[in-house]
What does this fold into?
Amino acid sequence: MTFKFTKPQKMEKVFHPADSRGKANYGWLNANYSFSFANFFDPKKVQFGLLRVLNDDHVKPGMGFGTHPHQNMEIISIPLKGEIRHKDSMDHTEVIKAGEVQVMSAGTGVEHSEFNSSNEELNMLQIWIFPEKNGLEPRYDQKDFSGLMKENQLVNVVSPRSDQSENSLFINQQAYLHLGDFDTGRKIEYELKKEKHGVYVFLIEGEANIADASLKKRDAIGIWNTNKFSMEFKKPSKVLLIEVPMN
It folds into this structure.
């Protein structure tokens, strides 16, 4: 059931074409930044609500991010191709493959490393969302969603702890992440969970009309001040929806 506004609202949108993202090529890493990160700064693209980072990273085999710290951030990693070897100060040593999703609550502080452990290029999305509270206990989890994905349906992969779905991972924020694969011509409607939320839609592959805007591969649109919006897919597509509080 969708919520209803107490007063009439006009949907607000911000369009982020793929070529407007920040870019960095370090040889071993080819990075694309949807929001200000590292040496890329755009005052209009610091964050979307409580979504702070959406990085689209391409990492060469055997290369990766050495041990580094995080604190007070909910971190979600989604490998699209290849696999990540993860090691952290909580004594986790794991491999996350395409089809899986990883969550890590940095909380009071955690150190970790991430390397491409396959013989092919790793392509991964890394998402940072501000937590509900600072100083929480760090935690780690991952899940294989490949058997749960269904054509032409959104699958809830991340939810808040207080509203965790049967199959989703949870984070310490009122945020919801959905992934979906859609055929040409499919049309669906997405209903937001709460009134003060917005949704950042990132088109991983394909072509779509989302909230009356035309998106192609790696384009994104932020949508708020509405309780629902439509998506129509013009080509076979893969989409990521990140619903977050706007303040």
